[in-house]
Input
Amino acid sequence: MTTYDALVVGSGIAGMESALKLGDMGYKVLLVEKEASVGGRMILLSKVFPTLDCASCISTPKMAASIHHPNVTAMTYAEVDGIERLDGGRFKAKVRQKPRFVDEAACTGCQQCELACTVAVPDQFNYDLVARRAAYIAFPQAVPKKAVIERQGTSPCSYTCPAGIKAHGYVSLIRSGEYEKAFQLVLEATPLVGTLGRACYAPCEGECTRGSLEGSLPIRRLKRFAADTHYASESGPHVEVPPTNGKRVAVVGSGPAGLTAAWQLARRGYAVKIFEAAPVAGGFLRIALPAYRLPAEVVEQDIANVTAIGVEIATNARVTDVETLRKDGYDAVLLATGTPRSTPLGVPGEKLEGVYGGLDFLRAVRLAGTAAAADNPLADRHGKRVVVVGGCNVAMDAARTAVRLGATETTIAYRRGREEMPAHTAEVEDAERDGVRFSFLVAPVEVIGDTAGRVTDLRCRRMALGKPDASGRRRPEPIAGSDFTIPCDAVVAAVGMAAKGAVYGGGVAANENGTLAADKQTLQTNVPWVFAAGDATTGASDITRAVGQGRRAAHMIDRWLNGMPLADFELDSLLEVVDKNKVTSRQSAYARHGIHGGVVEGPAPAAALTFDEIEAPLTEEQARNSAGDCLDCGVCSECQECVKACPSDAIHLDMKEHVEEVEVGAVVVATGYKLFTADAKPEYGFGRYKNVITGTQMDRLLAPTRPFNTVLRPGDGKVPERIAYVMCTGSRDETVGNPLCSRFCCMYSIKQNQLVMGALPLAEVTVHYMDMRAAGKRYDEFYESAKAMGATYVKGRIARITEKPDGNLILRYEDIEHGGSIEEAEYDMVVLAVGVQPNRDAEKLFGIAADGEGPRSPAGAGLEFDEYHYVAEVDEDLSPGKTSIPGVFVAGTASGAKDIADSIVHAGAAVAQVAAHLEAAKKEAVA
Amino acid sequence: MSAETPTPRGPLAPAAPSRDPREIVREETFMRRRVLDVLADGPHTVPEIAEALGRPAHEAMFWVMGLRRYGWITETPGGAPDGYFRYQAVEREVRR
Output
C-alpha cells in the first residue's frame, strides 16, 4: 500500500493551494480530482474580482504546479470511494481511477479524437450552453491536457450482438452522414454486411432503449442502408490487407461462420482457402434462406469482399479427411460445415413421394432458381396443398416459399402453442401476412399416400401442453383419440437440422447429436490444429451467432499459430451494459424523427407474392432521421473514429478502472460547492425561457474560451442590448431551503456588469437586488466603479418573469427606493445570480452510519456536518479548518461559501493545522 | 432540480412546449448537413437558419454554436449591425 503524508480530496483553488503548500513544506501529498483536469470552477471564470485579473492566468500556474510538484502526486479522473481511520490515527483510503480510455503518456492533447468523434453531449464545462463530444479534452487550459472518452457502459445494442458488431457505432456514423465508415465498421467484424442487414434476427433492436419509449431504431435496416450505399458504388471492401505471413489456413464450409473466419484470417495476413461442398458458396445464406429475404446477389456481393482480399473459394469441394489438408500444407483447419441435414419426422410414410426435409426443400428451390415449372418441387402436386411441420424459422421459410411456388393452401402444423414457437416473432407475423395458416398443438402421426406412392394426407394427433421440459418450454402431450387428417399434396418436415458428425477424418471427435466436439471458448477440437465453429459445433442457431463463432475461431487460430495462450482470451472487452432506466432518465421528454425498427411497409397481397426481395430499403432521409433518434446509451458509440484519428495510438477502449488503497497521515476535504439549480425558482423561468441564464453561464460567455463568438442570447443568437441581473437567486431564500448568503454573488455580478459593458458598449445593465454586499478591500470601490460605468442598481425583489413571443423578458418587481411601487421592465436577457449549495458528496468520504444519526466513519469517529450540510468546523473561531475527526481538515467552500481569496486563506489555515498534526504524530511515534 | 433543493411553493407557470436540451444537442451531428445546406446560398443569422430548418431558434442556436466550435461554420466579419451575427460554412473536404 502506498503511503502519503496527506490526502487532498478535490483540486479546486483550495485543494490545489493545500496540496502545493504541503508539498512545499516537504510533505508527500496525494491530490485526487474527480474531473479530468485539476482547477475546479475557478478556471472556468472569465476574470476575478476586484482586480479583473484573468482567471486562467492566475489558475493555470497553480494547476501546472499541482501535477508537476515533486512532492505532489495528482490523480485526475479519480474518486475517493471511502476513507477509514486506522488505529493510531492514520487513514486508509480507497481511490478509484476511472478509465480515461486514453494513454495519458501517449496523448499529446492534439484534439484529433474530439474532432473525429460522432457523439455530441452537453458540455458541463460550459454549463450546457454548447455541445462537446464524447471524446473530449475538458477545456482548453486543462491540466493535464489529455483526452477522455466518456463511456457510461456498453450500449445495449452493441452489448447484445453475438457477432461482435458495434451497432451503436455504425448508427452513430450514419447519423453523421458517414455511410462508408459505417460499412467499414461492420466489416471489422464480418464481410456479410448486406446479408446481416437483411437476414439478421436483430437482437440489437430487441435491446434498443428506445424500444421502451415508442419503438426501437431500425438498426438492422440501417446496416443494410450502409451496405446498399457501399455496393451502389463499390464492388470490393476497400480495405488494406497486410503482406502475407506465410501461413495457410483451410476453412471447410462457406456459410456465415466460414466466410467470417476466412475474412478475419486473411486480414491478418494468412493465406486462406475455403472448401465448399455445394456448387455455390454461401452455405445457408445461398441455399436455404429464401431469395425474398436474402437475394443471391447480396450474398455474392458480401462474398466478393472475401475473395477481394485474396481468399480462395473452391466449390463442389467436399472434404472428407482433414489429414489431407494438413499434408497439403495447411497450418490449421477450421470446420464450419453447419447443420446440413434435415431431421426426419420419424413417422410412417415418410418415404412417400411429396415428403421433403425442410432444408432439402429450400435448397432445391434456391439452387433451381425460381418457381419455373420444371424446377418447382411442387410442380406435379395436385392442388398444391402443403403442410409444413415445425415451428422454427426454417418452417416459416418453407411455408412462405411454398406460397410463392403456387401452393393454394399452406398450413404450418406445430405441436406446441404460438408462444412456444422457436421462430422469431417477426417471421411468424410475416408468414401470416403471406397467407400461411397455423395449426397449433398438432403433431404428425403418419403420412398417408395413394396407391401410386404419393402423399394424400397427413394424419395428426392433437396435443396438450404439460410441464416444462429441459428447454423450458411446456412439453406437448398427446390427447388420446384425437387423431385427424389434413388432406395435402406435400409435406415439408422442418422439425430440426443436424450436423454431419465425425466425417472429417483425422480423429476429430463429435458429440452424440452429431455436432463437432470443440471447446466452447477456444473452439479447438481434440486435434490441436483443427478448430470448429458455427452450427457445426453449436447445433442449429442463426446467422448472427455463426458469424460471431467464425470471428472467434479466427482469433483463436491466429493465437494458436503464433504460440499464444487460448484460455482466458477476451475477444471483446466490453464494459457492463448500460442501465436503460438511467438512459431514459437523462431526458425529461423525447421526440422522434425516424421510423421504428419493426416496421415493414405495406403487406403485399398474396397474389403478388414473388421471390423478389420484400423489404424496402430505407431512403437516405429515413436512415439519417432514424439514426438521429439514437439515445447514445453508452455515450461513446465505439465507432472507432477517435482510434483511427489519434496520431499517437493513445486511445484504448479496453482500459479498465482500478482501485488503489493508500495510507495517509492526514486528510484535507476540499470538495467545494454545488451551484443552486435555478429551475427551483420557477417564477424566474430558467429552463423554460431560453434567454434566462445563470451567472455562471454568463461568466462562460465572457471568458476568452467562451462557447459563443461573444455574449449572445441563447434563444436566438441576438446581441443583447438590455440585460437584467436578479440577485440572491437561491441564496438568502427560505422558500428554497437556503437562508445563507452565498457571499460572492454580488461581487461576481458587479464584475460581470463591468465586463458586459466592456464587451457590449451599447448594452444597458440593470441589477435587481435586496442589498449589495461589497465588504472587503477594494470591493466597494469596485461596486462604485460599476455604477460609474453606467450599471443601474434597483433595490427590490423580482416577483415574476414572463416571456414575450420575441424572446424578450418582462420583469415584475418592487422598486423600494422609489416609493415601493410595483413596476415592470423589459429586457433582452436575464442573468440569475445563483448562489451555492453544499457539495454533499463529502458525506460519502467517511461513510454514513446505519442508525441514521448522521455521517460516521467506519471506525466510529464521525465527520460532522453543520445544519446546512457543510463540513462542520468544530473550532471555527480559533482553529479554522479543523473538523470533528482528528487528522481530517476542511479547506475552502466545503465548509461554507467563500470567494477565491478567502478560500486560499482558508486553505492556508487548514494546511498549517495539517502540518501541526503530522509533526505531532511524528513526535508521538518517536516517543 | 437537485436533491438538495426542496420543492418550491406556489403555483408553477405552465411549461412551454420544449424539447430536452440533451436531445437537441445530440442532434447536432444529424442536423449538420441541413444547417450546411441552408448556408450553401450564403451567410445567415440564427433566426434565418432556424426558419429554414423549420425548427425553433434556440434549437438552431445549439447546432450553430456546436458546429462553430468544431470548425464547420464561422461568423462573418463585420459584426452584428442589426443585432445578429451571420454565419457561413467553412470549406472542408470531409463528408457532411
